[in-house]
């Protein structure tokens, strides 16, 4: 992630999300070092499986292969001049939380030989960290003075998406996928539909907008 940060143009939409995710990863490391996780080994395993799915999407695009559907809007619109930095950040969070985290929970359960319920504390701690960072991200990247934000279409667009709701849906999806582990055909179809649905939400988050104060 640090190598990507150094290689990408700062305004590149992938770079915007990458900076956010790098901050998340560093914060998780800090939580591990200070004993904030009940099971540090489980937390590290989940963190690594989680990050790997984002890096796999980056590598797929670099190799001219299609990434998962949830990531395609971000890569498609990464240089669009009408998309604001906050949109890029939240579209990446949407893809990574809405799709990748559910699969990472299942990957971790298989690796550690446990059920999702045994990872719930780690999942909740990471989720709480993400919520706190999302609030900071919105404050840092929301453009314009406060008086203009009410009229800014970005305010209305982003009001339709919630990390808390996405996190709750992800936990349900992870439990469903675990329950379907003995039915691979159904699990594969469920995963594909989850991927598509999260990608659709990401495309909406990346709707190009006029700059604050400009004429439509």
UniProtKB/TrEMBL annotation:
InterPro entries per the UniProt record, alphabetical: DUF5995
Pfam families, A to Z: DUF5995
Protein name per Swiss-Prot or TrEMBL: DUF5995 family protein
Source organism per UniProt: Streptomyces venetus
Lineage: Bacteria, Bacillati, Actinomycetota, Actinomycetes, Kitasatosporales
